Amino acid sequence: MTLLFALPETPSVPIQGEAARFPVRRIFCVGRNYAAHAREMGATPNRDAPIWFTKAPAALCLSGATIAYPPGTTNCHYEMELVVAIGAPGFRLAPDAAMALVLGYAGGLDLTRRDLQNAAKDQGHPWDTGKDFENAAVIAPITRAAAFGALGEQRITLSRNGETRQDARLSDMIWSLPELIANLSTMYHLAPGDLIYTGTPAGVGPIAPGDVLEGTITGLAPLSLTIAPAE
């Protein structure tokens, strides 16, 4: 078979202490998974069902990068999140079987063009342009699940230019990780290479050219991102 043109290589993420990298197949994201963040977005926290959206693998951006301020927006926000790397297939799982799929964890940033997202919400339209764009899925190196241990009271933080903006615990999530994986597996055949961004705590806010963002999750590699002027 002859292709008209070559596509970029499959995006991949470093794994702490290993030469092999994690190739990214799909990126799933869940919204409003921390009660305080749901409230700051004007929503009432609930456990009716997780709110899912996706980002293309082309949106992946590795920690340490310097990126141009995203196009098409004047109100782009940071959202610090725990990212789960899936390393085994699974479909229609019970929560007590879900964690067997987890290869590892990483810190991530779900960058959001908030003005575009809000306009879409107001019109009942999809969020795609607000969530899925180049460099919108920032990720730090992955730590193997065995090295991280059980999820619980680990702290998740985000600082902007040295000032803490987000500070919470992973235990604050409305939907636990086993519940999220199990729910997602009822709608998709999960497979190695899938990433799940598990939601952000309260304290989200705008970025600007010149900003340096630094994110931490206890036990994981730190994350950093520098914002350059728009192109």
Automatic annotation (TrEMBL):
SUPFAM superfamilies: FAH. Coiled coil: none annotated. Keywords: Hydrolase, Metal-binding. Residues 27-227 form the Fumarylacetoacetase-like C-terminal domain. GO terms for molecular function: hydrolase activity. It comes from the Bacteria. Signal peptide: none annotated. The keyword Disulfide bond does not apply. InterPro entries: Fumarylacetoacetase-like_C (IPR011234), Fumarylacetoacetase_C_sf (IPR036663). The keyword Transmembrane does not apply. Pfam families: FAA_hydrolase. This is Fumarylacetoacetate hydrolase family protein. It comes from Novosphingobium album (ex Liu et al. 2023).
